Amino acid sequence: MSQLNEEKTIQHFDLNFGPQHPAAHGVLRLLLSMDGEVVFGTWPHIGLLHRGTEKLLEERPSLELIPYFDRMDYVSMMASEYTISLMDEKNSGEIPSNRAQAIRVLFLEITRILNHLMAVTTHAMDVGALTPFLWCFEEREILMEFYERVSGARMHAIYIRPGGVSFDIPVGLIADIYSFVVSFSRRLDEVEELLTSNRIWKQRLYDVAYISEDVAKNMNLSGVMLRGSGIEHDLRKEAPYELYSTIDFLVPVGRMGDCFDRYVVRLEEMRQSIKIIKYTIDTISAGLVQPRDTKVSLQSRDDTKKHMESLINHYKSSLGLGSGPRASFDSVSTEAPKGEFMVSGYYTPEGKLVRCKTKPPGFYHLQSTSIMTNKHLIADVVTVIGTQDIVFGEVDR
C-alpha cells in the first residue's frame, strides 16, 4: 500500500535537434529541454561551421575582402559585399556615380527578393507545403541568371566594388529585369493564394513565437524580425544610403509579432522591392560605373609618363596601398534582407584594413530562439527556425 501512495514525478529530458535534422538550415544544433512534447528550454549550439572569417579579413587588399563577404550570407550575396564596399568608400572618400548607385540599388533589391523567396518557400516546405518551393525556385533561377549576366557568376558575384560596380549592365538586361518584375507580381499572388488563407498554414503560424516590441528591442532584433513586431525601422528610410532617399516606398510592419506576421511582412517587402526596381529602371542615367582614377586612362596612352602614373595608381589602389593619411576606425550599417548588417574596422594610414568586426543579423536572431520556442510543442521549433531566416555562413563566421 505504501508504494501505491508514493508521489510520482515526471523527469524532464533533453533532446538534440539537429544538425542532421533537415529543418536545421545548415549546421544548427539545438539542445531542447522537454516536458513531454512541450519545450521549456532551448540552447543553440554553434561552431560546427566556424571558418574564422574576421581573422582572414586582416591585412588584405580591398578587392580580396569582397569574396569573404559573398560567402557569409550565401543567400544574399551582393547585400553582404555591398556593406564592405561602402565602408571602404567611407574610409577613402570615394563617391560612386549616379549610374553606379542606381545599378547597386537595382541589384540590392533583386537580392532582397532572392532572399525572401528562399525564406518563405523553405519555411513553407519545413511546415509541409512543397508547391511554393517548386514555383518560386523557377523565379530564383531567373534572378540568378541576372547575377550571372552582370558578373559571370551565379552566386559569389564579387560585382559591387569600392567606388561602383565591376562592369556596366550588358545590353538588354534592363528590359529583361523589367519584364521579370511585371510578371513576378502575379507569382506572388499565386503563392499568397495558396498559403495566406490556408487553414493548415494559419494554424501552424498563428500565435506561434510571439515577440513583443520590448523583447524585439532588448534582443537586438532587426529586419523582418523587428518589423514583424510592429516596429517601423528600416535603415533605407532611417539612415538612407545610395539613392534610397529619393525613392518612395513603404516599410511593412506586423501587428501581432507572430510567425504569420513575419511571413506577411516578407511578402509585402518583395512587393516594395518590385516598386523600387521599377522606379530605378525608369530613372537610371548614363555615366561611369567606376572612378576614373582607378583605371588606366585611355586619354593618357600617348603620354608615357602619365600612362605609367595611371598604371601605378591603379596597382596601388588594387592592393590597398593608396596614398594619404587615412588611419581611422570606421563603421557602416546597411539594411540587408535578413536585417541590419554592420561592419566595423580599423584602417592603417595606407588604407589597409587591419582589424575587422562584423555584426550579422542572424547571429542575434538565433539568441531569441529560447524565448520564441518556450512552452511551444516540438513541432513548432521547425516553424520558429524557418521564420528566423538564418544562414550559418554569417552566424558561424
Structural summary, described in words:
The protein is an alpha+beta fold. It has one domain (53-289, 305-362, 379-395): Cytochrome-c3 Hydrogenase, chain B, CATH 1.10.645. The protein is built from 17 helices and 8 strands. The strands form 3 sheets. A 3-stranded antiparallel β-sheet has the order 1-2-3. The protein is globular. It starts with a helix and ends with a helix. The model is unreliable at 294-301 (pLDDT under 50).
Average pLDDT, rounded to a whole number, is 85
The CATH architecture can be given as Orthogonal Bundle
Number of individual domains: 1
**CATH level 1 name:** Mainly Alpha
Low-confidence stretches: 294-301
Please outline the major beta sheet: 3 strands, antiparallel
| DSSP summary, beta strand count | 8
Shape: globular
Helical stretch tally: 17
